[in-house]
Amino acid sequence: MTSEEKKIIAGLEQETGSLNALLQQQDRFEALVNDQLDVVFIIDLFNELHRQIKLHGLKSLQEQSKAVFYFEEDVNVLNR
Q1: What is the reported pTM?
Q2: Domain range for 19
Q3: Could you report the per-residue pLDDT of 27-70, keeping only the tens digit for each?
């Protein structure tokens, strides 16, 4: 193998290493974004819960929750 070929191979190996590092950074970034999206979803869920409590009161929200989880047993709550 000539010295020129060795330089080309070394350069390719270096590029491959750089690409692998870049892919690892991209994976970490995607995981971070997914975590942030989860947080945004939870915040939105809590905001909606807070809005529902202010609008209808906690007791009504508890009854609605029961109705959703125990629909067959507590159908009348949905008909109010």
Answers
A1: 0.52
A2: 3-79
A3: 999 999 999 999 999 999 899 888 888 888 878 777 777 766 66
Between 19 and 72, the more confident residue is: 19
Provide the token pair at 45.
């869920």
Question: Cα separation of 48 and 62, whole Å?
Answer: 14
CB 61 within 8 Å of CB 52: yes
Tally of structural domains, the chain: 1
Q: Which of 80, 45, 50, 46 is nearest to 63 (CA)?
A: 80
Q: How many CB atoms lie within 10 A of CB 60?
A: 14
- List the alpha helices (DSSP H) in the chain: 3-56, 58-69
Q: Determine the residue type at 63.
A: E
